[in-house]
Design brief:
Blueprint: H1 13-22, E1 29-33, H2 39-42, E2 49-57, H3 60-76, H4 95-105, H5 118-126, H6 131-140, H7 142-152, E3 222-223, E4 226-227, E5 238-246, E6 249-253, E7 261-265, H8 271-285, E8 293-299
Antiparallel strand pairs: 1-8, 2-5, 2-8, 3-4, 5-6, 6-7
Helix pairs in contact: 1-7
Length: 300
Amino acid sequence: MEPHRWLPLEANPDVTNQFLKQLGIHPDWQFVDVYGMEPELLSMVPRPVCAVLLLFPITEKYETFRTEEEERIKAKGQDVKSSVYFMKQTINNACGTIGLIHAIANNRDKMNFETNSSLKKFLEDSLSMTPEERAKYLETYEAIRVTHESSAHEGQTESSSSSLSSPPSSSQPQVSHSRTKASPLCHSASLSWAKRNHVGPAKATSPSIRLRRWRPLIRLPSVGLHSVAPSIDEKVDLHFIALVNVGGHLYELDGRKPFPINHGETSDDSFLEDAIEVCKKFMERDPEELRFNAIALSAA
């Protein structure tokens, strides 16, 4: 039987916020760009922050680490609170939506849902389910699938004349998850407010990279200055995960993994900085990669 496959979603606050609105969530919380790792760039993010979505490349190095991490946790164990909402991913290209569900589900006490919210119903129905059952339920939940498809068509596009990084090497594992191309998140970066609307990719000319705008560029067949919708069958190698604070612990929620990953203690005040430390570890494992992007769910 052919696996379920959706159109890939873009890591773009405009897209994700419209998606949440269509799912019946009042805009008290909104996704915003995270421009870099330095304190002055993190200070641009409105507080409090209750979740971070990280977009990163699936590479051979990462897959090796993922296997080793799973074996280590299975051997040593970890503490995961029963209140953590976690679901598996069984739909190709659905990692963006699953990341959004993880972000909202683990902060549902903070959210204001509209009366007829399709996401509220999905969460209520699936609360007592296992991670595998939640994944199967999503496969049949038309309201979220239709909203996902609509949002996937509304992503930011770029002219074919733009400078985009090369497509992934054929030697890298091809995993259909997300349809975005990210400018680099830098360990040392600067940004002026005048440059906030620049969407060109930063150029890595030295170890200290100037960050222009840390937002992905979609790589689609172009028609003039706009782009046609991506092929639903096209293989891409970028993936979303959610980072959330549940009960004072920072959890990484990835539907490709068998369980949540507990990254240690955190607090409402330190969550963004703690989540970015986790993002740094992803980057350090693939120092030659530039395709990293993050958006934060912040109080509006």
